[in-house]
């Protein structure tokens, strides 16, 4: 009983492989969400602004400075 616990097969976790076809739609979704976040943090100001006013810029202002985007 103790010797069977030391065999390599007993230590391998039972992991089901995930194919790239299953991950691809989620990777695209997460990539688009991250690109949108990058736009709002880095480019939602002035000439590149899609939303009028300064509210979005002010809400993300600290993140803008934290990531080193030019601001003021
Ligand atoms: Zn600033």
Automatic annotation (TrEMBL):
<feature type="transmembrane region" description="Helical">
    <location>
        <begin position="23"/>
        <end position="42"/>
    </location>
</feature>
<protein>
    <submittedName>
        <fullName>CbtB-domain containing protein</fullName>
    </submittedName>
</protein>
<keyword id="KW-1133">Transmembrane helix</keyword>
<keyword id="KW-0472">Membrane</keyword>
<dbReference type="Pfam" id="PF09489">
    <property type="entry name" value="CbtB"/>
</dbReference>
<dbReference type="InterPro" id="IPR012667">
    <property type="entry name" value="CbtB_put"/>
</dbReference>
<keyword id="KW-0812">Transmembrane</keyword>
